[in-house]
Amino acid sequence: MFSSLTTTVQKSLTDAYGISDITVAWERPQDSAHGDIATPVAMQIAKQVGKSPKDIAETICSALSSLDAIENVEIAGPGYINIWLGPSALIDELSQTADSVLPIPRRKEDPVIVEYSQPNIAKPLGAHHLLTTLIGQSIANIYEHLGFNTVKWNYIGDWGTQFGKLAVAVERWGDKKEPSQYSIDELLALYVRFHEEVENDATLEDEARSAFKRLEEGDAALTAFWEAVVSTTKASLSDVYEALHVSFDLDYGESFYQDKMEPLLQEGIEKHVFVEGEGGSLIVQFPEGTNMPPYLVRKGDGATLYSTRDIAQMRYRIDTYHPKEVLIVTDIAQKLHFEQLEETCKQLQWTLPSFTNVLTGRMRFADKSMSTRKGNVLKLEDILMEATQRAEKKIAEHGDTIQTDNPAELARIMGIGAVSYGILSQNRKQDIVFDWEKMLSFDGNSAPYIQYTHARARSVVEKAGGVSGAVSASELSEKERVLINTLLRFPRALDDARIAHMPHILANFLYQLCQDFNAFYNDEPILKASEPQRGLRVYLTDLTAQVLKTGASLLTISVPDRM
Ligand code: ARG
């Protein structure tokens, strides 16, 4: 459709003003009062043509109005051209939406590396991990759906002085059992104890540093202990990841780069990028005006740091995968670190792929008691359990209006979906509010609302006995037209969400689609309509269900067929 309109517009411009090669941008207005499609081209070329945008728009309009596909053309504002398409042209276009429900086969091309979640060793996943975990997973899902070759990477924090602290704590206050016998909660409790005790005994810090140094030097007992803790940590992650529909291709964490840092430190010294800092340390300095403090890459005692491992990680990823893009999803607190990292790589004269540190705001809790809970860890496992219980209660409250053969399974899908959608429907650049009420509401921008709308649409299609035959219409009602136009915006919503790395763009789209579908459903008889309306309405209902299901799954959320 767009290409034939573009040709008409271009031809009219060539005929009237002798200009060619004009790019015509098309938009789909959100507001149905502005037509089905619109273009600002008249305003864009006014200068070049030397005529007023209105004059140019008029020229274009008279050419367009002769097309069969077009029902009406109007000039709006300073020279916008708003176009209303005829019913069959609009319906034909829906095949693009139907196509974009299916994943594009993965292209053979350099990959996009998406790194997310990245929990640290010996700690259970906490509420705050929801942010990078879900945002990263849904960004990766969208890339994959659009045919990109992706590598999903969990960069586990399994190396560093923090591990020295844990070793000291286990040595001092542990109950002397086999390393593999410590549960993740026991390890966390010991780590927390270290931080309490160090308040009164500062020598513990030195002990921890020296334990980590011995581990770096290959101490056998410490290595065995470390290995056990890594496997306990990884095992504790898998259930939660599975429940959240989160998965990775790789989980090479910080420890993987142990033997890859030394040559890079040498390279940096030779290139005069790593220079001597205080107490024999190595640092990177940044030009005035960048406002970045020096970047510590090796401590005075020779120990490496988080930064050193990230430098090695970058080199390794570039050499091994030749990625065309690297995305690292983290909390806003890491912003400076990644700016320093990127600048350091540039000073080393490395050719970098497109690199983005996809930042998230902090998590805030609507329920104050959640942020002040003792010990300060709100385990993700517990949150998901509570979500399921709360969903169960909701289902019971709704009585007969919710239909299911398996209330326990529905409660899980709804509860976990509510949490995930609750996060993903918010703009990641702002603080993300965790609010049980909002997440589980049935009529707001929430998973239950999306899930319920999907189930409603599916049940209509089922009652209709499926979609049948060719779909046509000689006229469209207002609600039908609005629904069609929203469905037509799906491919664009996917692209926009991918390009901005913002899953909430897709979530907002799904919410809008639900609202437009429900308005249509409430106003127009579907099963009782006569043909050809009935066929069209069932088709629109089916397409709505498909789009909701695909969109939700890209946001890690399942939608039941019945509820
Ligand atoms: N494990 C780190 C943390 O929990 C985040 C790692 C981010 N990724 C990276 N490549 N440094 O704070």
Please explain how this structure is put together.
- The structure is a single chain.
- By secondary structure, this protein is an alpha/beta fold.
- Among the domains are: 2-85, 2-Layer Sandwich (Gyrase A, domain 2); 391-554, Isoleucyl-tRNA Synthetase, Domain 1.
- It is built from 21 helices and 12 strands.
- It has helices at residues 2-17, 41-49, 53-64, 87-100, 129-145, 161-173, 184-197, 203-216, 220-243, 262-270, 306-321, 335-347, 368-371, 380-398, 407-424, 436-439, 447-463, 478-488, 490-500, 503-523, 533-554; strands at 37-39, 70-76, 80-85, 112-115, 150-153, 274-276, 282-284, 295-298, 325-331, 354-360, 363-365, 432-434.
- The strands form 4 sheets. It has a 4-stranded parallel sheet, with helices on both faces.
- Helix 6 crosses helix 7 and helix 17 (447-463) crosses helix 20 (503-523).
- The two termini are 38 Å apart.
- The model has no long low-confidence stretch (mean pLDDT 95).
- Residues 115, 118, 120, 155, 157, 310, 313, 328, 330 line the site of arginine.
